[in-house]
Amino acid sequence: MVTLAHGRHEHLRGQHRTLAAATRPPDDYVVVAMDDPAIVPTNVDGLRSRVLRVATDPGGLPLARARNRGVRAALDAGADVVVCLDVDCLAGPDLVASYAERVLAHPRTVWQGPVTYLAPPPDGGYPLADLTSLDDPHPGRPAPAPGAVSWDADPDLFWSLSFALSPAAWATAGGFDPEYVGYGAEDTDFGRRLVASGLGLAWDGAARAFHQHHPVSRPPVEHLDDILRNAALFHRRWGAWPMLGWLEEFERRGLASYDGLRWTVTDAR
Asked: Which residue from 31, 117, 165, 251 has the highest number of Cβ atoms inside 10 Å of its Cβ?
């Protein structure tokens, strides 16, 4: 299990608790702390985390580089299945077990699981022992029922919130591209590279996760520079613009403009 974190300490603690209570807890829990010395190894009900440290980048959080570091550490420790779960995600009770079963049976397929975006927690927090009562997967992604799978997934819908793969699949794909720094596009790039490398991409209905609430901006204007920079990199690689809805909304707000060749930040910003 690999998780990246910068802040979100309460979310990380919640995730740790759900992993420890899972039908199959992970054998190894790697937390990659990006420029966050407050994150330290912890033990919850016998599941101990280990913490790797990655310095930040002037362009933003080095998500791709940090994820590569975490997966490499898990593989070096002997993992035959690597699960990556966003720090905001609580693990459903069967997430680790189901991912392990799917990856071992289909090692040349990369697996994703449905994610429910939770409302703000009630007094006392989310019911960690009964997360399935909150199940309502994101409507923009496939969500097969528990026990079912969905094959031939769209690589442009790949998300790094929750996925699992084998060492062979990771080696074939070559990891995430560390040229992507800050927010946006590194996961869509990875999805395309998976398919271009001849790997399968599928959804596992039993590997369900629950994204803890936090405030967001729509569009994420605080990441304007990251998004334009990463979108340009993606366009050079693939000949298409990712995150187009956000780019067009930036343009509508006068924050960015498109001249037919490139997106640029406007003086209005």
From this structure: 165
